[in-house]
Design goal:
CATH superfamily of the domain at 33-169: Peptide methionine sulphoxide reductase MsrA
Structural class: alpha+beta
Largest sheet: 6 strands, mixed
Distance between the termini: 62 Å
Order of helices and strands: HEHEEHEEEHEEEEHH
Number of strands: 10
Number of helices: 6
CATH architecture of the domain at 33-169: 2-Layer Sandwich
Strand content: 15-25%
CATH class of the domain at 33-169: Alpha Beta
Radius of gyration: 21 Å
C-alpha cells in the first residue's frame, strides 16, 4: 500500500511539474500586450470582427472621444461608438490591426457607417502615444493610396475609454432573447439580421474587394 501511495504522489508531482513547465512556456512565448481603440460604426460589428483575429485577446464595446463622463448607450452625445482591442503584440502588430480595420469599414463616408448615420457612427483611430499616432496616420495614408480616394477617418487622441453596458458585450454570440420586428430572437440571430440588413459586408466588399478581411 505504501508503495502505491508513493507512486501516486510521484505521478501527481510529475503532472504538476509538467503543468508548470507548460505555463512557463506560454508566458515566455507571449508578447507584450497592447490596447488600441477604434471607431468603425456599430461597435457590435467591430467587436465581432476582431474577436476572430489570431493574436487578439479581447474586444470590448464602448465609447470614446466625447466630454461626457460615464456615458451610457442612451446618453453618449459627443462620443463615438468604439471598440477597445487588446492584443498580443508578439502575434499581431498594431499595423496589422489597423490594416484590417481600415479594410473593414468605409473610410470615405463622413456621415456615419452603412445604415447607421450620425456623429456617433463616424470612423476614427484613437491613439495613446506617439507610436500609435504614427501607425494610425500611416494606415490612413495607405488606405487612401489603395482606394485612390479621400479618407475621412479621423486620427484622434484617446482621452478616456468607457465600456458600454454588459448587454452590449458579445452581443453577436449571445443566446439571450430580444424582441424584434420578426418576434423574439436570440441576440445572435438579431445581430445577423441587423448586419445583413444594414449592408455592412456588401458595402465593404464592393469598396475593398478581396482585401476586405471580414466581408466573406
Amino acid at each position: 500500500m505504501m508503495c502505491c501511495v508513493r507512486e501516486m504522489k510521484a505521478a501527481a508531482l510529475a503532472v504538476l511539474i509538467g503543468l508548470a513547465l507548460m505555463l512557463q512556456a506560454g508566458i515566455a512565448n507571449a508578447g507584450p500586450r497592447e490596447e488600441i481603440v477604434l471607431a468603425g460604426g456599430c461597435f457590435w460589428c467591430v467587436e465581432s470582427d476582431f474577436e476572430s483575429v489570431p493574436g487578439v485577446l479581447s474586444a470590448v464595446s464602448g465609447f470614446a472621444g466625447g466630454k461626457t463622463t460615464n456615458p451610457t448607450y442612451k446618453n453618449h452625445t459627443g462620443h463615438y461608438e468604439v471598440v477597445k482591442i487588446t492584443f498580443d503584440a508578439g502575434k499581431i502588430s498594431r499595423e496589422e490591426i489597423l490594416h484590417k480595420f481600415m479594410r473593414s469599414i468605409d473610410p470615405t463616408d463622413d456621415g456615419g457607417q452603412f445604415c447607421d448615420r450620425g456623429p456617433a457612427y463616424k470612423t476614427a483611430l484613437f491613439y495613446d502615444g506617439a507610436a500609435q499616432k504614427a501607425a494610425a496616420e500611416q494606415a490612413i495614408a495607405e488606405a487612401g493610396q489603395d482606394l485612390g480616394r479621400k479618407i475621412v477617418t479621423r486620427v484622434l487622441p484617446l482621452n478616456g475609454f468607457y465600456a458600454a453596458e454588459d448587454y452590449h458585450q458579445d452581443y453577436y454570440k449571445s443566446s439571450a432573447l430580444v424582441l424584434t420586428r420578426a418576434g423574439p430572437k436570440s441576440k445572435a440571430e438579431a445581430y445577423k439580421f441587423y448586419r445583413k440588413a444594414c449592408g455592412r459586408d456588401k458595402t465593404v466588399k464592393a469598396l475593398w474587394g478581396r482585401a476586405a478581411p471580414f466581408a466573406g
